[in-house]
């Protein structure tokens, strides 16, 4: 079972490696980094919003504290020491709240500064990754195109391999048809096959063709004899033609002109 599992994982890994496109993986990683950067920015914005809310509360408490102090002075000036003491007591309570809010404000301000610095660093990292990503994608695309061109020239790619097989089959079929056509021509010339487009030759036509071919040979032979004997080739040819003509016999009828 372990062996089967290992074989399955190996085949699955090979299939995934064949299907994986590094450019798509880089784009996906860049998208994830952008999402993380967006989350950090939202965190910075949330902390800044909380800090701003504390600042507004501090301003209100400080204004109220100043108001109590002013009221205490006025009451003391009027001889109302009791009212002055009450105003100062309320101011003291507000001052404790102001102190607590100032502590929280400093904490939030520190967190905001840390998140802002982290966001800036992450932004620089994302920008650097984007530049590197585009460089790697361009290099990969160029290498892939060069590989495809090399495979096309060498004929080892699947597409060019199919084209090569098609050309080879076409050439083989052409040679087969040419050989068949040549064989049929030879068979027709030898008389082994009848020519369906011509008229079949009978025995008389074959004999006439033979005599016609033989007379050409006799004429050439008479010309050569005349040249050797010193005579005129034309006379020899005419003599050969006269010798080749059949003589009239007495039995053959003669037709005189009337």
Automatic annotation (TrEMBL):
Residues 225-258 are annotated as: Disordered. Residues 44-139 form a coiled coil. Keywords: Coiled coil. InterPro entries: PspA_VIPP1. Residues 233-252 have a biased composition (Low complexity). Belongs to the PspA/Vipp/IM30 family. This is Phage shock protein A (PspA) family protein. It comes from Actinacidiphila glaucinigra.
């Amino acid at each position: 079972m372990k062996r089967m599992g290992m074989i399955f994982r190996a085949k699955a890994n090979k299939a995934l490696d064949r299907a994986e496109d590094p450019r798509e993986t880089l784009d996906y990683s860049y998208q994830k980094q952008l999402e993380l950067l967006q989350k950090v920015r939202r965190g910075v914005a949330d902390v800044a919003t909380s800090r701003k809310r504390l600042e507004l509360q501090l301003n209100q408490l400080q204004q109220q504290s100043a108001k109590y102090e002013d009221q205490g002075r006025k009451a003391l000036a009027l001889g109302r020491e009791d009212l002055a003491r009450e105003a100062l007591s309320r101011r003291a309570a507000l001052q404790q709240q102001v102190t607590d809010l100032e502590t929280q404000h400093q904490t939030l301000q520190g967190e905001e500064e840390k998140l802002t610095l982290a966001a800036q660093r992450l932004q620089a990292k994302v920008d650097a990754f984007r530049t590197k990503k585009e460089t790697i994608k361009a290099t990969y695309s160029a290498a892939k195109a060069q590989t495809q061109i090399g495979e096309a020239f060498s004929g080892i790619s699947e597409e060019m391999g199919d084209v090569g097989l098609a050309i080879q089959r076409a050439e083989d079929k052409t040679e087969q048809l040419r050989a068949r056509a040549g064989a049929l021509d030879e068979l027709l010339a030898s008389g082994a096959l009848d020519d369906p487009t011509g008229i079949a030759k009978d025995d008389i036509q074959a004999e006439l063709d033979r005599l016609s071919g033989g007379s050409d040979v006799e004429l050439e032979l008479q010309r050569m004899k005349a040249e050797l004997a010193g005579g005129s080739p034309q006379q020899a040819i005419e003599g050969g033609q006269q010798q080749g003509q059949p003589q009239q016999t007495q039995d053959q009828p003669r037709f005189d002109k009337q």
